[in-house]
SOUL heme-binding protein
Amino acid sequence: MERLFALIVTLTTALSYVNVKCLVLPVPAYTIESPQFKVIHLESDFEIRLYKEISWMSALVHGTSFRNSTKDGFHRLYQYLHGANLNSTQFFMTAPVLTSVITSSTSTHGSAYIVRYYMHPKYDDKTSPPPQPAAELNLQLDKWKSRCIAVRKFGGFAADDNVERERDGLVSSLGKHFPGNKYNYSIAQYNSSKHPTGRVNEVWIMDVSGFTTEGCPV
Ligand SMILES: *[C@@H]1O[C@H](CO)[C@@H](O)[C@H](O)[C@H]1NC(C)=O
Ligand SMILES: *[C@@H]1O[C@H](CO)[C@@H](O)[C@H](O)[C@H]1NC(C)=O
Ligand SMILES: *[C@@H]1O[C@H](CO)[C@@H](O)[C@H](O)[C@H]1NC(C)=O
Ligand SMILES: *[C@@H]1O[C@H](CO)[C@@H](O)[C@H](O)[C@H]1NC(C)=O
């Protein structure tokens, strides 16, 4: 009996080893790529991350609603990812989808929202630029140099009734360590809308002047 058990264990181990070997190739297709970072300052309610260079394919939307503008912008990006580009390239989904909210003190009519898709770093360099978007999508490639970003996490769905509250939470936590209180912010969403639970979102604030004392690039 014990021998039989040992045999089964051996067989099972061998089998799963084979399975693992077979899976080696397909796995990257299911890995969701995200930009790399290093945490350089950790607090209970936020952290400061140092990101490497990041390229985003970006859709500018003028609107009054975070949710609706993100949807509109993502719809244009979605078409780009599904072949509406000069090479008919199909892209895998990456994370996060980032919405940068630009509030202008001069405009009384809403905000500008820039909805962004993270481009795999293989498209980063000058020798292999990403396929050009179809002109009617009105997308633009944005390249960020290496920079520090203050990050606060929150769950649930990012929506009009919570993003500003989360932004205020981060601004208030930041204020205890770094001077300043007027910032643009971005909302990073990591999960597709078909996941109702276990969702991960973040508020990002960058260009905080006090960050240089943490060793951040200027
Ligand atoms: C968002 O879009 C929905 C559906 O089109 C609309 O009913 C709603 O009024 C919009 N919300 C805002 C704040 O614009
Ligand atoms: C897109 O197509 C052009 C022209 O055929 C080619 O030169 C370029 O390398 C392609 N780019 C990518 C990212 O495949
Ligand atoms: C927000 O971004 C806009 C556009 O880049 C800039 O003009 C403005 O000064 C920024 N506001 C703050 C508070 O940083
Ligand atoms: C949401 O995305 C985060 C970050 O990629 C991941 O850790 C988490 O498991 C995802 N949640 C669901 C429900 O897929």
